[in-house]
Design brief:
Layout: H1 2-91, H2 102-116, H3 124-151, H4 163-167, H5 173-215, E1 230-238, E2 243-246, E3 254-257, E4 263-265, E5 273-281, E6 292-297, E7 302-309, H6 319-322, E8 334-340, E9 346-350, E10 361-369, E11 376-381, E12 388-392, E13 401-408, E14 414-422, E15 425-426, E16 432-437, E17 441-446, E18 458-465, E19 469-478, E20 481-488, E21 495-505, E22 525-529, E23 536-544, E24 547-548, E25 556-559, E26 564-568, E27 575-594, E28 601-604, E29 614-617, E30 623-631, E31 635-643, E32 652-656, E33 660-664, H7 666-672, E34 681-686, E35 690-691, E36 696-704, E37 710-714, E38 716-717, E39 723-730
Length: about 725
């Protein structure tokens, strides 16, 4: 009887599986039909958008032509008006000047010139009228003075004759002119003094105003003579120093790990392989390079140092091109290098550029293994040293290994504190570890020692002394069979806008948690951490091939501050989705996804908006494609591909639709490589997006193998950001 029950249960289970498969097949057929309908609708929409774009272009051209015609008509009218005014000025008679009024007129002209320097210019007709009035007033003044001399009245005759008057000549025309000229010379001197004094006062007032604007208050009334007053805080662009990019080590399981952070790895599987690649762009259009080299770091120091480029300067004949330091990266020369199977963390170092501009360089590390306890695909960007870094989701269950590698490329030590946060908040002293990383060495920390098994964990890395690069490798295994490996993406600062394009959504995820069983595929997870005690309101949007999706997970929800929140994303269409998260306070956000069979997992971190000079190195292991998502506006974006010899292919353009995704496939990358290239594409560089409104474009690089292994890498700027130094101006 018990045997029959077992067979009946097996039969029921098989029937359930058959029903699930039938339902899944029906859903797939319906999804395929919906995709076909959506594709035809998108084609029609694209044609309509093209037609509307052409109509807008024609309308703009007509408007430009109309504006040009109106401007030409206005210019012609203005020219005709000036000609008429000049003819009227020539026809108007000029009054004659008498010899007696010459001195007066000269003085008046000098006075008017001084006044004109401090007053706005008047129209020609107004100036002519005022000159005539001054001339008439000058003639009237001469006549009055002549009458006074003839009648013996006036100031000269009010005094009694004295000795000086006995020897002075009597009043006459020359004496009158001289006496009239002296007061006008003094008037001119006084006018000039007034003008100079006004300029000095204006300068002083401007200084006081600038002081008040920059410092928030004025020191004019309180500062003593010779006192130095601060004009306030400001910042100036600083010359860029050299850059360092440090990669992860070859993933593996630790065999021993000391309290000082010295690690020994177990033997790795023979199928494991890795590759390091780096690119350095010229500092200008003439092909000038800064000094650059790469090496490896271990617990004792640097090893295997290799020169990549030597410092070079532009020739004088190329000085004009050399000055164009802001020229697009896709127009510059570049040097590419790669090396295989490096166990210790590779280090790329570049010296400061000759003109202090930002250096454009990048490095990438990739790993792949088909078997063994650390099987899977992992692609990680080599990063610069930082003071603070955040990581989501290290694997800490049984059979897992999560090692944090701290690398210090500087010649001074760094004291690093590693703290952990789980779903209950900060783990305190039990989840904290401090370690000293000597200069030009590496140290390792086992994250499993910071948390209990099965908890959702986040890790914060802070350094004092020298900044460090933190790389967190995480793998999981079932016995001796690896089920995934990843270089967890590090984040340097929280934000409020988070966009993660191209997140893989596996098939077989139950629509609700009640339908979960051992055979169910794990759903993608949205991880959120809000630093501090303040909670956050989260807005979640998911976009698929047909636009925004309606999902089971709430679109708006709240999370508490200071803890880890992992939210299952259910109801998503299998394939690839673009996920946008907004928070009303700064937060860290990431998305975890894994394959349907559970053989690999990956993490998606928010991607920065694309701009000129954004790009990435392209992995050699697996197949690579780029997923782009345009938010807010439609348009296009151009890109070029670099090959291993340092040559760029022809510029390509990709159309973008608002709130929709676009893909640059592996075939597109190969086709965009230079003609006759032997090594294929190794770097992609983007231009500024051309959008028809306010918006941005984000990109995620997805690398996968035929066995379903995958890894996600956000596309970021290749050129370093400008740095600013705070200054305080003094007067």
């Amino acid at each position: 009887m018990s045997g029959k029950k077992v067979r009946v249960k097996k039969l029921i289970k098989e029937q359930r599986r058959a029903r699930k498969r039938a339902i899944r097949d029906q859903e797939r057929a319906a999804t395929l039909k919906a995709k076909q309908d959506a594709a035809s609708a998108r084609a029609e929409l694209k044609a309509e958008e093209q037609r509307q774009r052409q109509e807008r272009q024609q309308t703009r051209e007509k408007q430009n032509q109309e504006r040009t015609r109106q401007q030409q008509e206005r210019k012609q009218e203005q020219a005709q008006g000036r000609e008429r005014q000049q003819e009227q000025d020539r026809d108007r008679p000029s009054p004659s000047l008498s010899p007696k009024s010459g001195a007066v007129t000269a003085g008046a002209a000098a006075t008017s010139a001084a006044a004109a320097s401090t007053t706005p210019a008047q129209p020609a007709s107004t100036r002519q009228t005022r000159r005539e009035r001054r001339r008439r007033a000058g003639r009237a003044g001469d006549a009055d003075r002549s009458d006074q001399r003839d009648t013996g009245t006036g100031p000269e005759h009010d005094t009694e004759p004295g000795p000086e008057h006995e020897t002075q000549p009597g009043p006459g025309p020359d004496a009158s002119a001289a006496s009239a000229g002296r007061p006008r010379g003094a008037a001119r001197a006084r006018t000039a003094a007034v003008v100079v004094t006004a300029g000095v006062l204006a300068t002083m007032a401007g200084s006081v105003a600038l002081d008040g604007l920059m410092d928030g208050r004025s020191h004019a009334a309180t500062s003593g003579v010779g006192a130095t007053a601060a004009l306030g805080a400001a910042s100036v662009t600083a010359s860029q120093a050299g850059q360092s990019f440090i990669c992860p080590p070859l993933p593996g399981q630790p065999d021993s790990l000391t309290t000082d952070g010295l690690v020994e790895y177990r033997d790795r599987d023979s199928s494991a392989s890795s590759r390091f690649s780096a690119v350095l762009f010229a500092t200008d259009l003439s092909g000038s390079f800064s000094e650059a080299s790469w090496a490896q770091l271990n617990e004792q120091g640097r090893i295997n140092e290799t020169t990549l480029t030597e410092a070079s300067a532009a020739d004088e004949a190329d000085s004009r091109e050399a000055a164009a330091a802001a020229a697009p990266l896709s127009q510059r020369e570049a040097v590419y290098t790669s090396a295989a199977d490096l166990a210790r963390p590779p280090l790329l170092e570049t010296a400061a550029t000759a003109d202090g501009s930002a250096q454009a360089a990048a490095a990438l590390y990739e790993y792949q293994a088909d078997a063994g306890p650390v099987a899977g695909l992992a692609v990680g960007a080599c990063t610069a040293p930082e003071r603070s870094q955040w990581f989501f989701g290290p694997e800490i269950a049984a059979g897992s290994a999560s090692l944090l590698t701290l690398a210090n490329p500087f010649d001074r030590s760094a004291t690093v504190e590693i703290s952990s946060v789980d779903s209950d908040g900060d783990r305190g002293t039990s989840g904290t570890r401090s370690i000293v990383v000597p200069g030009e060495t590496t140290r390792s920390v086992n994250i499993a020692g910071l948390a209990s098994s099965g908890s959702d964990l986040g890790v914060q890395v802070r350094s004092a002394g020298a900044p460090v690069t933190a790389q967190l490798q995480s793998s999981r295994a079932s016995g001796l069979t690896g089920t995934g490996v990843e270089f967890l993406p590090g984040m340097t600062a929280p934000g409020t806008e988070h966009l993660m394009p191209g997140v893989p959504i596996p098939d077989g995820v139950p629509a609700s948690g009640e339908d979960d069983d051992e055979e169910s595929t794990a759903p993608p997870e949205l991880w959120i951490h809000v630093p501090g005690d303040q909670g956050a309101t989260v807005e979640l949007q998911v976009f698929g091939e047909d636009g925004q999706q309606v999902i089971e997970t709430p679109g708006v929800f709240t999370v508490n501050g200071g803890e880890i929140d992992a939210v299952n994303l259910r109801g998503l269409e299998p394939g690839v989705s673009d996920i946008r998260v907004r928070t009303d306070v700064p937060a860290y956000v990431g998305v975890r996804s894994e394959t349907e069979e559970g053989t690999d997992f990956g993490w998606a971190a928010p991607a920065a908006p694309l701009r000129e000079g954004s790009g990435t190195l392209l992995p050699e292991l697996g197949e690579t494609e780029l997923h782009l998502f345009a938010t807010g506006a439609s348009g296009s974006i151009a890109y070029r591909v670099l090959d291993a010899e340092g040559g760029f292919g022809a510029e390509q353009s990709l159309d973008l639709s608002a709130e929709s995704a676009s893909v640059i496939s592996a075939e597109d990358l190969t086709a965009a490589a230079p003609e006759g290239s032997q090594g294929g594409p190794v770097v992609i560089v983007f231009a500024d997006p051309q959008l028809d409104g306010e918006g941005s474009v984000h990109a995620m690089m997805s690398t996968s193998t035929d066995d379903g292994q995958f890894s996600l890498t956000p596309v970021s700027p290749l050129r370093g950001a400008e740095e600013y130094v705070p200054v305080r101006l003094l007067r």
